[in-house]
């Protein structure tokens, strides 16, 4: 690949395109490249094509990345731009994460046209979400609520609210901010009350192993603190064998030179929740994630783990 021609692979949703164009702008600024030097190539993924079934029923992690990764392996694109929370913890052979951008706000956003915040929802209200994690966390906090499947991109889900399919939903604050739609957030939910998905708010740049030219081009875009946090979170998730069938949450942050991590696993119905907190040196991020997973696995009911991973 010539240094002046970079092919970005991305999904075609408005959010995915916003993220791809953010990467393009950062590359242009880092290397003084003209806009024509970087192309954005839209690739339709399985998760984009199958909209009539819950994600967990379609196949778990990788639904929004596989076709982009196939294009990388086939040398049809040079950089795959992903929401890191969509990525498998074990990447296909020959691929690697070359950089991560600075993390955007990792919180979940409560969105409703009628209610000021989550606590204001009336008894037996209907909440829409396609996320097993959010479903379990909602039911853990409010067993009276009814959770319905809520697939589609950000705009589709907001339209469903307007149509009365549900009284409220949750979306990532990061995605709404990247779309310039933060004004649609009714109330951000604190990390303490709703632990986010692993790597929520992180944009990852995936490349071919051994492609030193591309690695050098994207290296200036990497944010070391985000990379450390993502390492702890994704190592935790990998040990937990997390997928879209497994309600797992995890969040790490560096504070005063120390890496702080919180992890959580829940039963699908939200009736049980197991939590873990760990801290340690940032350079031990992977070990910290593994230790946190091992601790929570000793606490959790094995039957929950078996059902979650069935």
Summarize the structure in words.
By secondary structure, this protein is of the alpha/beta class. The protein folds into three domains: 6-101 and 201-222, D-Maltodextrin-Binding Protein, domain 2; 108-189, Periplasmic binding protein-like II (D-Maltodextrin-Binding Protein, domain 2, 3-Layer(aba) Sandwich); 239-308, Porphobilinogen deaminase, C-terminal domain (Double Stranded RNA Binding Domain, 2-Layer Sandwich). Helix content is 34%, strand content 23%. The protein has eleven helices and 13 strands. The protein has helices at residues 14-31, 46-49, 55-58, 66-73, 132-141, 154-162, 173-178, 212-218, 224-239, 285-299, 302-308; strands at 6-10, 38-42, 79-83, 95-100, 108-111, 126-128, 146-148, 168-172, 187-189, 203-208, 248-255, 258-266, 273-280. A five-stranded mixed sheet has the order 2-1-3-10-4, sandwiched between helices. Strands 7-6-8-5-9 form a five-stranded mixed sheet, sandwiched between helices. Strands 11-12-13 form a three-stranded antiparallel sheet. α9 (224-239) packs parallel to α10. It is globular.
Low-confidence spans = none
Order of helices and strands: EHEHHHEEEEHEHEHEEHHEEEHH
Q: Residue share in helices?
A: 25-40%
Radius of gyration: 19 Å
Largest sheet: 5 strands, mixed
> How many domains comprise the coordinates?
3
Here the CATH topology of the largest domain equals D-Maltodextrin-Binding Protein, domain 2
Described by the principal axes of the CA atoms, the overall outline is globular
| Mean of residue pLDDT values | 91
Distance between the terminal alpha carbons, to the nearest Å? 43 Å
Question: In CATH, what is the homologous superfamily of the largest domain?
Answer: Periplasmic binding protein-like II
Total number of helices = 11
CATH class of the largest domain: Alpha Beta
- The CATH architecture of the largest domain: 3-Layer(aba) Sandwich
Tell me the strand order in the biggest sheet: 2-1-3-10-4
Fraction in beta strands: 15-25%
Secondary structure: number of strands: 13
* Structural class by sheet pairing and helices: alpha/beta
